Amino acid sequence: LEFRRVLFRSLEAMAAGLPCIATRVGEVPHVIQDGVNGLLIESDDVDAALSAIMRIFDDWEAAKRMGMAARRTCEQRFTTSAMVAGIERAIGDLLPSWNRLHSVVHR
Asked: Most CB atoms within 10 A, among 24, 48, 73, 97?
């Protein structure tokens, strides 16, 4: 549950155009691309966290580019319409298997 809260907070920041600093856990690396739309660090690595924070503050242009890329990521992958389209694709992928299974079970 805590992981989900962290991921949603990251997505909220990304939607606002902010680069995120997050740990490489769960689905986070599938959302945040290191150096592209945020920075990824290892869990419990305080030095890496400090280094990432300093990288953001030391290079505002890179931070702005990552922030814009973060917003684009949200617009492309996490809008309601993008998520509905993903669910529709998943259902479409599953239906042929379901139909085959259903016909075998009900013979």
From this structure: 73
